[in-house]
Write the structure tokens for this entry.
Amino acid sequence: MKKTNKRTKLIITLIVLIALIGILPIKEIIMEPSIIGQTIARVFVKGLETNHSCSAVFMEGWNLISIPCLATNTSPEFVLSSISGNYTSIHYYDLNNNTDHWKSYNPGLPSWVVNDLVYINEKDGYWINMKNQSNFHLNGTLIQPNEVPLVKGWNLMGYPTDNSKEITNALSTISGSYTIIWLYNASDSKYYYYNVSESNGTLQEMMPYYGYWINMSKNDSLFVI
């Protein structure tokens, strides 16, 4: 009788879990094996999308930025429409493209010139050259938790969240996979860093709307929660 009850409870639990997965707006579920005494399954549920309004102030000159919101139209022209006319160009570093690492979009170029930066997403970091200080805003969706794939070498990454977090806590899911991370703050024209081997640096926390240079010692994925 006890065995029957246990089996019944297990079946009911599975049915409830399946029903929840079908109802919730879950974009993706990742199963990652983990060994703690015995092999178990560690589940990362990511991709709960909520409507969100992103806003930031971009300073005159070069800014190293990221945009947490994912727009319905990811073209640079649409994403940056709120600062149209106030920026010269925007650039992204693509480590995976060995023939041409740098991609750019310059709205002031003639129509026959090809802009090879064709989309902006929440997982990447960007250099943007501002003509003057401007208020940026974008209505889109915020995906939380989110995954930022990183590859060995220098990556220009975004930080897709609206909350700041202490640096080692924010990067805990890639602990042992990166060596150093840099941020450029256009407000004071200074670089800030965190060096893993020395366990110190001037960068104390990860903050949204900034882009980050991170040096990876191996491929890994940062889970932003």
